[in-house]
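G., before I forget:
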Amino acid sequence: MTAPTTAPAVSVIVPTHNRHASLERLLDALGVQQVPPAFFDVIIVADGCNDGTAAVASLHPAPFARRVIEQPASGAAAARNRGAAEAAGRTLVFLDDDMTPAPGLVLAYHRALQRTAEGVALGPATPVLEEPVSHFQRMLRLWWARQIDRLSRPGHRFGFQDMLSGNFAIGAELFRRVGGFDRELGCREDYELGARLVEAGARFIWVPDASALHHDATDLDRSLRRARAEGQADIGILRRHGALAPALKLGTPEHPGPAAWLSRRALSGSALGGTIAHLLYRLLAPLEWLRMRRRWASVYGAVRAFWYWRGVAEALTSPRELELLLGDSHVQAALTPTPPPVELNLQEGLEAVEAALERLRPAAARLRYGGELVGALPGRSGVERLHGGHLRPALEHELAVALLCAAAVEHAVGSVGQSAPCWLLPHHER
Amino acid sequence: MATAVLDLELEQIPPSVTVDARYTHAVVLVRWRGTPVGRVELPVVEGRVGDGLTPLSDALVAAAGWPVWARWLDRALARHTSPAAVPPATVAVCTRDRPEDLERCLTGLLQLPDDGQEYLVIDNCPRTDATARLVAARPRVRYVLEPRAGLDVARNRALREARYDLVAFIDDDAVPDRGWLRGLLRPFGDPLVACSTGLTMPLELETEAQEWFERLSSFSRGFDPRTFELGVQNPVVAGAVGAGVNMALRRSLLAVVGEFDEALDAGTATHSGGDHELFTRVLTRGYRIAYEPSALNWHRHRRTWPELRRAIYGYGTGVYAAWTRALLHDRELGVLGAAFGWLKWTQLPNLVRAMLRRPGAFPLDLVVTELRGCAVGPFAYLAARRRVGVRA
């Protein structure tokens, strides 16, 4: 295959570890993208593979240019960084090896990022499971569906925890500027990257056409191991970004109940806690058999909380460190001057307010209608700054009642028979 | 004591609406720009709808409540969400010896906007060829004869005969609204939605039996779209998510969930419950059921009191039969709690109120009939299952 003479517009980076069959499926899907093959290249980073992945990747028939890089086992974050370092494309698309991209994925990402400067594009990754499916997998599938519903809602304000590295795209220049993934974190390195992107003022875009099927092999046991790794990772994130404490699970106390009891035992390293957690874990299968779904959910929640907090405890250098870290973050939050929310008046017209949000990109805003206060779009740690696209959905949902009341006070709101109240139209349309 | 059924558009309300003097009440479906937003009951005084004091439009807006303002605000904020393309679907009507009702239904179906849908009539175990002749006169409608009696048998036949992946069902005694099919198919953009249900209003409330049917088993679940799934909805209480009079299914997901249980529903010893039992299975397998109020159709309730009693009896039998199947096939122990809860919180209080003749209580014979139906339900299921020869 002759090397293309010009750099491709898009580089697709695939970190992979001993999943050559999955990788082949991904390469097949990349072979039928709706863009000409010269438009993108694929960089496969074989991270500590010993199942012939590198050979499979090199020999797989494909119309696009590809590069296969082998490295000793260093983790997915390091593999992604390595792929990005070698990539020539202006847009980087990251895909995990258990994803099957839709034919329109590369084109959709490219278009989305062309339109948006400093953009980070996220696409839906719908899980596909093979029947028969366990109750855990059913609930996981529904959880993913709810996540996608949430992210695809118009006007959603993206937070660092919406960043999922299995299917996303970013401009190469932005990726390098923020420094890529943090290799030291065992998992949730995508959340940590998300935090830095939010701080850098990046603009998150949801791209529904950049969809992929996620052949998720997570099962109950894996999810518990993952919970432990997440506990460890959250300490890493807390150390790097103290201000994010309120948004992390370890920054909020558990609801009183079995989960709270177990979380305290997990933190203290008590053996009794471990025994109880193990017994509850054994209870899950009979509860599933008896179709006692609500009980199953609360038992699973408690066991999962236990392993998360066990992970937290393992990552702490001393038992008191968590208190110190959380205390530091409170102090930090108190001392950091937060800019006051921007005051905006809806009477100037929706377009004018949207333009102001685009120009200022404030962390928080207060909306008035004339002399009446409508409401606030509050700042939240780890959540992206406001832009024009957030206004109308907020007015329609969270602030709907307040908006109508404020408008009613300022003018008499006309009968519902009017097609649109004149005060919501821009000046030239009145 | 008849009730007029009206369909009014908020943007074009006449100053007063008059109906025939025999009506004492009116039930109004309130629309805003074609979309159903509310349902109001108003008194009728000397043929004029409304209490004579409040202007009609104010009464309707006030009673419809927030959904009107939410949609009005959506329009005012000019958020242009372009409607997704509607995929072609199969519209299936399962019928048995009801040619007058079927004719009305088909007339309504043939007036729907053409999105490439096909129409299918499953004639279930007919005594005459009236239905066959009726359908033959309408070349756009495909006719299939299913000789084995049973509504679920007919539904399964419809699923097998359908050309498209999405199959919409409407009862032969219902009439679709103009936006019915598009509304019903809209939720299927979400790949986890295996089933959608819609809003059903009464076509007429001329007789006391029809009014009681409407009170006892209203098909309305509100005017906001909702999604039902595990964790949000108890799968065993499937009556809350919809009814077979107005539903659509995705055939490809039914391969996982399974077909309708042919021991259930009209035409078998269990009389009803086939639709609810399938909804339960859709939910327990981890899929979603979407309720879409803009998928509106109008159902002609049974007119006479004996028919009403049979329907209520059949409803009780069907619920318990469906629960029996869930318990025996799928080990859904939750049916025991659901049955107990229904008895304790609804059926027994209704019975006591009826016996004490409290105002507003349901008629005693209907309450008792429902309980008798429930008692028979499990045995009816077992008998019907033996007849079908269905294996576990």
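The two ends of chain A are 61 Å apart (CA to CA). Chain A has a mean pLDDT of 89.

More on Monday.
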